[in-house]
Amino acid sequence: MTAYADLSAHFGRIAALSNAIGILQWDNDAIMPKGAAGTRAESMALLHVMSHDMVTDIRLGDWIAGAEADSALGDWERANVREIRRIWTVATALPSDLVEASSKAVSACEMRWRQARADADFAGLLPHLSEVLRLQREIGQAKGERLGLSPYDALLNDYEPGGRSARIDALFDDLAGFLPGLTEDALAAQARRPAPLEPDGPFAVESQKQLGLKMMAVLGYDFDRGRLDISTHPFCGGADNDVRITTRYDEADFARSMMGVLHETGHAIYEQGRPQAWLNQPVSRARGMSLHESQSLLVEMQACRSREFIGFAAPHMQAAFNGTGPAWEANNLWRRGTRVAPGFIRVDADEVTYPAHIILRYRLEKALIADQMTLAELPGLWNDGMKELLGIVPPNDRLGCLQDVHWPGGGWGYFPTYTLGAMTAAQLFDAACKAVPDILPAIGRGDFTPLVGWLGTHIHSQGSRYETDELLTRATGRPLDASVFKAHLRRRYASEA
């Protein structure tokens, strides 16, 4: 066998193992009984170590060098080798015992977080989260030394290959300067219009579920390769060709679950649209988390909070809950779905205030990884940041620093990709609508085929064939440009329409 064939076969086996880990992780987060936590943690740790050992196999260095020297490889093969080298370089920076320790710490912390969040008990989570942070610092240090990066940038690189905090600092500082004025203008424009009416609840969970399933089908989700379930924190997970999403329900507000389902369906359609011919190879993987978040936010924010989509969806909402009267009219539902109101919960935030939630988390996690603050200071500094950025202070830690699973789950360096994704979503949607003028009219008819077709061609089917900036440039004609996002926000929220 050639070096490339050896690499391809080896990473095919790694993909099979990763799929098993993905399903076990979904089960852990969605339906696993609490009593299984200890056993599951041991199983997950062993599988993570097995995967790590395969990625750091001593033979890979020679195989990678041999494949890189093979002039017969095509574009996809060369891109696959590039991605394999990236994965191998990072993985070989970590000893197996550190991988095992981190996996166990994350499993324990995630389980403790669920109760701590319910009880608003940060003190009860602190010992577990401290261990996760200690290990993340160690991982960031080890990877950073190998890559020539700071510990934080090394962690960020796992979620956003090639991403650097210096670039994010500039983008986020610019946004932090732009958002207060926009928020003021949006609130002023909003105040000149009648406040939206609230549809009468309660909204039965089963009815919400059926509405969510219907909207997933409208978007083009393939139910033969996935499913919808409930979890504490909504997510998209599973395995190749088994792409599962979760949501949570609030009988007082059906829109929370519906928009959450639409968001996660955006992730899922990306995963279901990855290139099948390369599915068990790194080159088929989604191109970083800013691209992944762009797909969920493009669906939820750009497409499904448009007047066109709400006009289509309003009769389905009415039918799901037997709604009648002005509160169920499309224009009222649109105004309700685009209302700007600073709030405590990130996943419920409107488009205008959402970036402030991310800027806060980004600044805090950078400081924590750099050991510039302690975890014990987190609740207070979180509340200070909320006051500075949004003018509100959470009444308890459940509505504050305990609301997200990312840090207990080991996802340090992930948060900035949400707002990078929002910027990318605006740029992609703008380019798609210019290239295919029927996209918005089709959405108004409940037809997402033109939009998903464009995304499939330019993003989903490309996997990791190109680096992020090149992929975005090929799709839109330019690398990430925050001005498109700003123009979208001002047009939707600060106009008099």
Concise account of the structure shown:
With 497 residues, this protein is mainly alpha-helical. 64% of the residues lie in helices and 3% in strands.
Describe the structure.
The chain is mainly α and 497 residues long. It has one domain: Orthogonal Bundle (Neurolysin, domain 3). The chain is built from 20 helices and three strands. Helix 10 crosses helix 11. The N and C termini lie far apart (64 Å).
**Largest sheet report:** 3 strands, mixed
The order of strands across the largest sheet is 1-3-2
- Estimated structural class: mainly alpha
* CATH-derived architecture: Orthogonal Bundle
- Using the CA coordinates, give the radius of gyration: 22 Å
Q: What portion of residues belong to β-strands? A: under 5%
Q: What is the straight-line distance between the termini?
A: 64 Å
Shape: globular
Order of helices and strands: HHHHHHHHHEEEHHHHHHHHHHH
Reading off the top of the CATH hierarchy, the class is best stated as Mainly Alpha
Instruction: Give the number of helices.
Output: 20
Number of DSSP-assigned strands? 3
Q: Which regions are unreliable across 5 or more consecutive residues at pLDDT < 50?
A: none
| Domain module count | 1
CATH topology: Neurolysin, domain 3
Percent helix, as a range, is 55-70%
What's the rounded overall pLDDT mean?
96
Cofactor: Zn(2+)
Pfam families: Peptidase_M32
Active site: 264 (proton donor/acceptor)
Function: Broad specificity carboxypetidase that releases amino acids sequentially from the C-terminus, including neutral, aromatic, polar and basic residues.
